[in-house]
Structures are given as C-alpha cells and as structure tokens.
Amino acid sequence: MAGSTARSGDWTGHDTRLLTVAVIAIALIVVLIVWAKLHPFLSLVLGSALVGIASGAGLSNVVTNFESGVGSTLQEVGLLIALGAMLGKLLADSGGANRVIDTVIGRARPGVVPWAMALVAVIIGLPMFFEIGLVLLLPVIVLVTQRSGHRLMRIAIPGLAGLSALHGLIPPHPGPLLAISAVHADLGVTLALGILVALPTVAIGGPLFSLLAARWVPVGAPQRAGGIELSGGDGNTADRDAAAGIEAEGRRRTPSFAVTVGTILFPVVLMLGKALVDIIVTDTKNPPEVRVVFDFIGEPLVALTLAVLVALGTFGYAVGFTGSQLSKKIGDSVGPVAAVILIVGAGGGFKQSLIGAGVGDSVAKWANGAHISVLVLGYLIAVALRLATGSATVATVTAAGIVAPLAGDLSTTHAALLALAIGTGSLFLSHVNDAGFWLVKELFGLTVGQTFKTWSAMETLVSLVGFGFVSLLWALL
User: Fold this and answer.
1) Amino acid 271: pLDDT
2) Nearest to 327 by CA among 238, 250, 256
3) Mind giving me the DSSP string for 190-236?
4) At residue 157, what are phi and psi to the nearest 5 degrees?
C-alpha cells in the first residue's frame, strides 16, 4: 500500500528519547489545556519549548524552529481563515443564509425534511465556522421540529452532521487547511476528495443516524432557542437574525437563492477548476495560457479574495449596505477568529519543533518497523489527541506535524487523503472536554447522557464513516 513505509534505519536510543519527549510534551499540552485551563496558544508554546530543550536540538534552535513553523503555517493558513470569516459574516448579515434555509426547507415534503436540513447545513457550512453555523441553524431546527411533527433529534442531527463534517474535511475551515499545509497536499485535490467523502458521510451520520438518535432520545423542541421565544412563533427572518446575533441594520433586501449559492460556491469552483486544468494540461515547462490563468485564480488566497470581493457586491451593496457598514462588518468578522489564528500559528510552531528535533523521522522508523500505514497512523494520533484535548484544531495540527515526514514520498492523491484522514480523526467522540459538547447540550436543552447518545455518538459515526471512505479511496486511487 502506498505510503505504508517511509524511512528505514536502525532504531537507536536517541529515537526512544525523542518519542518519549514528544509524548511528554503532548501530555503537558493536554494537562495545561484540560486541567490548568490554560489557553491552547500558550499551552502549545510551552509544549514546543519542552520539545526543543529536552530533545537536545540546541537552545539556539528552540526559538528558530518555533518561529519558522508559525511563519510558514500562517503564511498559508492564517489569511485564508480570515477571508473565510469575512465571507461567512457577509453571508449571514445579508440574509443569504436565511434565504437558503427558507428555499430548501420551504420546498421540502415532510418525509424529506431531515435530508433538506442536511443539505442546508452543507451549503451554509462551506464558508461558516461550526459554532456560527449552529447558532444560525438553531432557531430553524426548533421551528421545523415544532411544525413537522418530527422529534427534535430527527431534525437536529442532520444539521449537526453537515456542519461537523464540513468543519473537519473542507477548506477554508482551519483543520483541513492545517493538515493540507503540514503534509504538503494540493488544496484543490483535497477539496475535491473532501467533498466526495463528506457527502455520503453526512448522509449516513445525519439523516440516517437521526432515525436511531430520535428513538434513543425522544425529546421535542425546546421552547426557547438562542434566547428567542419560538413556541408558536412564525420563524421570521427577524427572529432568526436576533437569535444568531446577525447585524442586519441597513439591509433593504436579501439576495436570491441562486445568487447566494453562486457566491458561496464561487471560490470552490475556482479551486476545483485549477485542480481539473492541472490534471488535463500536464505541460508544466511551457504551460498554455489557460493553465497559467487557472493556476492563478485557483490559488486559495486568490480564490477566497475574489470571493470576498464578489460577496461585497452580492451580499453587500446589492442588499443595501453602505461602504462604511461593510467596512465595519469586515473588521468585526476577524475579531472572533483571532484566537483561532493564534492557536493555528502556535500549532505550526509545535509541528516544526517536532520536525526540527527529529521526532518525525523517529516516528517514521517506528511505523516502518511496525508496518503501520501512515493513513492509519495519522488517523489514530488525531483520535487520541481529540479525546485528550477536546480540540479538533489541536488534534489536527499535532497529528499532521508528527506524520508530516512520512508524507514526503506520497502521491498528490494520497497526500490529500492523508490530510482528510487526520481531519476525520479530529472529529472523533466529542465529550465533556469539548466546548462543542456543552454548546449542543445547552442550546437543545439536553442532559449530559442525552448529549452523549446523540451528539457524541454522531461525531464518532461521522469520524469512522469518513475514515472508511478515505481508506476506500486510498486503496482504489
């Protein structure tokens, strides 16, 4: 199997020391985040320092490795996260997200409402972070439950599955971007394969699993959602805007469904177009003009920048916002993701500290001797870190950093699948150390046990099913 082996060589005491140091450093990060409640950014900084000092890499290299890791990671990922947040903010405040919800849910027959909810979550989840998408969908889930006669979990689980799967598998979400950067995968190829994996994963973990979840936890809709009284309400846009904290002042109209979906998919089409042209046009020494153009506009930074510029028109001026209002919205969108960008940068620093110390090469030796596929190794490390820290981002960046040296000989397709495997591992079994667990519990009025039976079980299923599809593609491609 491709990628199942990496570097050969005799195991030495130094390798044992490096792996011991890595385990201790990861344990330190877990302790600091979970028990000491220290911010993940500072925890990753301290873990990186421990790796550099205890591994014998040399004091002069401790700061150098960390800084180079932060710089290279944010160079590729930081700007994309910020641009994705801008696009998501404009989508929400313009009413475009509500337009998608009303169009898809409003036309769905009662029997297909769970599938329609999954589709809405997939569309909205492309540019939006999980937490923002959940708060936006929450009143809709409650109102659809009240009107359709379905139990709450029959409607909620499909929406949660759509948001979660895209958060773990599809750029410009931080996790996939981190994994792509670490293993040097092609973003367009990863995006295409990620969509291919995400769609059946959402179907199984969402509408299909909701049949069981609704039986295990047969509860109805809560009377309040996001602080808004919804029982008996009409579920209008104003109620949803208030529940989601959307700033709609100055908006005179909402974009059409076609314009909304077109704007959301615009950067995806550009990045997929680049990947497709690169496959068709193989001449890299004297590439034709069409490949030069698509290579430029399909670059993630260019594609997302163009998407934000288009959104300023379709989600901004066209709906009635003024230039000053749009400028404020762009500024406001970056604030909430500042902490994410810091964590991402520190995670890159930790990754480079591990690589600079030689931990990656030692892991490669161990995996080669144990005959463990790099795909399985990346997934299991991400799972372990997810269970320990509760953070999908920390799990992704650390797992990707550890297995990155094993990815050097992988094909473009297998490198992309490795990034996706790490992403699926980072979704495994959300429990009490994950903020998302408590967010779902409180918003839907569940007990801890009910949250485990629904949300935690769904996350585990999404992780396992997603990895199953990734493994299938790994064997076939």
Assistant:
1) 81
2) 250
3) HHHHHHHHHHHHHHIIIIIHHHHHHHHS-----SEETTEE-TT----
4) -60, -45
